[in-house]
Amino acid sequence: MNQLLALKYFCKVVESGSFTGAANAFSVPPSSISRRISDLETSLGTNLLKRSTRVVKPTEIGQIYFEQVSEILLQLDQSTESVKSYQTTPMGQLRISSMVSFGEQLLCPLLDEFTARYPEIVLDVSLSDELSSLANDDVDVAIRGGYAPDEHVHAIRLMPNEFIPVASPAYLAIAGTPSNGFELREHPGLFFRTPRGPSPWLLKTGDQWHDVSGKPLVVSNNAKWLIELGLRGKGIMMAPRWSANPYLQTGELVALLDKCDLSVSQNQELAIYLLYQKPRYLVPKVKAFVDFLTERLMTPDGNGL
User: Fold this and answer.
1) Residue 157 CA: distances (Å) to CA of 57, 146, 189, 264, 277
2) Fewer CB atoms near the end CB (10 Å): N or C, the chain?
């Protein structure tokens, strides 16, 4: 029995939910798929699939086996591509996933330069703030804000992701400037909604954290719109410093309470990370992008722009 082929057939049946779907993916008869998996089950001494006339589903042990085997097959494919591509010209499709606001403000303006430097790389860029997995989303590199992920993914810290309260001069002229963190509760808030819910406004005093979130005026996952509302004097928002910097420099927004310890998370190691599966760095197109982005966005002190 060709066990590697049987494993690929098994994983594709679980993913597609049918022998026919797997057969179409491999351009073989469904009977070949069924026979290979039956041989695999015999060698393992257990049933991996529950078969019915309408759908095929993994058994409990089959689901566990699928999760383990699919990760191994992914690593094998990546290693094979790495070996084949080693020391070749960076080329092919490069799939990039980034947070929306970071992508619009910092990443996309750099991509023309990257394309000019590597004309044989075709960029496939997706902007999303949804939580994602490199393996499940089928991307080469991802840019996410948060904390360093597990050991299976390599993470490069591009820059800190410090959040600060900001408001427009027009708003402050009417509503007044808060003199301490607790006064934020009396102001209308423009809240960014993450996949886990609206980002809170947190104040640390001593060893204690306090929720000082303002009265919600707007909650949205559209950071660009929230900034526009802030510029129009609608309220206070907690914004990433890198995102607010252009408006702070022009005076369109004002940073508040710079002596207070304010954040959107009790974990004060928030950062922007460039993520990729460890074997992928050997692939020239991935190495080219990783090296380019770290060169353009990281400063010598490692704190980013």
Assistant:
1) 40, 10, 30, 19, 15
2) N
Q: Are 221 and 192 in contact (CB under 8 A)?
A: yes
| Sign, CA torsion 215/217/221/226 | negative
- Give the count of beta carbons closer than 10 Å to the beta carbon of residue 156: 19
Tens of pLDDT along 114-127? 999 999 999 999 99
Collect all residues with Cβ–Cβ distance below 8 Å to 222 and sequence separation of at least 6: 100
- What does the alpha-carbon distance between residue 146 and residue 294 come to, in Å, rounded to a whole number? 18
Bridge-based pairing state of the strands 236-240 and 163-167 = antiparallel
Q: Which two tokens stand for residue 238?
A: 């907690």
Which residues are within 8 A (CB) of 267 and not within 5 positions of it... i.e. 6 or more apart? 147
Dihedral over Cα of 165, 216, 192, 268: its sign: positive
From the list 156, 293, 296, 174, the residue with the least C-alpha distance to 235 is 174
* Phi and psi, residue 5, nearest 5°: -65, -40
Q: Are 224 and 159 in contact (CB under 8 A)?
A: no
Question: What CA–CA distance (Å, rounded) separates 220 from 147?
Answer: 22
Do the beta carbons of residue 48 and residue 61 sit within 8 Å?
yes
**CA dihedral sign of residues 56, 58, 62, 63:** positive
Closest CA to 10 of 26, 22, 27, 28: 22
What is the distance between the alpha carbons of residues 281 and 74, in angstroms, rounded to a whole number? 15
pLDDT digits (tens, 9 = 90+) for 138-177: 789 999 887 666 656 788 889 888 999 999 999 999 999 9
Could you list the beta-strand ranges (E) of 37-187.
49-51, 56-58, 92-98, 121-127, 141-146, 153-160, 163-167
